[in-house]
Amino acid sequence: MSHIKEDGMKLGLHINDMSWPGGASQLGPTLVQIAQAADAGGFDRLSVGDHVWQSHFLGGPEREVLACYPTLAYLAAHTSRIKLLALATAAPYWQPVLLAKTVTTLDVLSGGRAWLGIGAGDYEEEARGSGLPFPPLSERYERLEELLQICVRMWQGDERPFEGKYYHIVRPLNLPQSLTRPRPPILIAGSGEHKTLRLVARYADACNLRPGPEIPKKLEVLRRHCEAEGREYDSIEKTCMFVFDVGEDGSKVSELLGQLRWLAGMGIQTVLGVIPQVYRITPLEIIGGKALPAVADL
């Protein structure tokens, strides 16, 4: 199945820092403003992280972070078009049936706008401090693969028992079914050549790579995995994250467009952007008005 639109690069908005003016009482209203501006401005999708502690890259555990899926459900109620996903669901934290049910619920309540964005998990200190599961890396990947198999089975309506190494599901029932058929699209985050990109070729509709000059090499590895799996390489959407810094007055728009052209030239089709001081809304509107029309031809 393919969810790739052919006409140029798409931009998404990733919200990863919620330490905004006004504190907790203003988080809800500010999120609605941001999401509605992105929805109206033509952004293709909106993502938030799946964490209980904030990343050290964003100030550490003492900074504010909201739970992922309640936040996405809240934003679904205040938007009408934009697609919604976690970037990325931490697989070790989730029981597969609960995750499939959660993403299905988001899809149904949003009118068919949910993605499953997922990864093997990478924040060990958060997991240890919070009492959440965080097995060794090899087991995390094995659990991730079984989780994906169970989610796909539930979206297919296959209620046969699932007997894996880690998960044993007597009846993987999923009612109501997702509105998106045959299932919500799957994005697997990470650039690991041996395991992550193999799972992308086997299960996903999109990859999410780190931005940098190594992207062509990673995509060539993905192409080889696709050949081994009998998968059409072009059916997988190539995405990455990036910082969308247009400056306070839009003076850096041309610089951002150059960076987006660089990413497109390496094969990236969708860029999920972190916008500094996104709560000001103006940077969002500048990107929607100037950057989005320009990247439609990339």
Which features does this protein show?
single chain, 298 residues, alpha/beta, 9-stranded parallel β-sheet, two-stranded antiparallel ribbon, globular
Strand content: 5-15%
| Cα-to-Cα separation, first versus last residue | 23 Å
Count of individual helical segments: 9
Spatial strand arrangement across the major sheet? 3-2-1-11-10-9-8-5-4
Order of helices and strands: EHEHEEHEHHEEEHEHEHEH
- Average pLDDT, to the nearest integer? 96
Count of individual beta strands: 11
Sheet with the most strands, sense and barrel status: 9 strands, parallel
The assigned structural class equals alpha/beta
Radius of gyration: 19 Å
Shape: globular
The helical percent reads 25-40%
As residue ranges, the low-confidence spans are: 1-5
Can you characterise this structure?
Strand 2 (45-48), helix 2 (68-76) and strand 3 (83-86) form a beta-alpha-beta unit. The protein has helices spanning 27-41, 68-76, 96-109, 124-130, 137-156, 196-203, 215-229, 253-265, 282-295, and strands at residues 10-15, 45-48, 83-86, 89-90, 116-119, 162-163, 168-169, 186-189, 206-209, 237-243, 270-274. It is globular. Helix 1 runs parallel beside helix 9 (282-295), helix 2 packs parallel to helix 3 (96-109) and helix 8 packs across helix 9. The strands form 2 sheets. A 9-stranded parallel sheet has the order 3-2-1-11-10-9-8-5-4, with helices on one face. The chain has a two-stranded antiparallel sheet with strand order 6-7. It is built from 9 helices and 11 strands. By secondary structure, the chain is of the alpha/beta class.
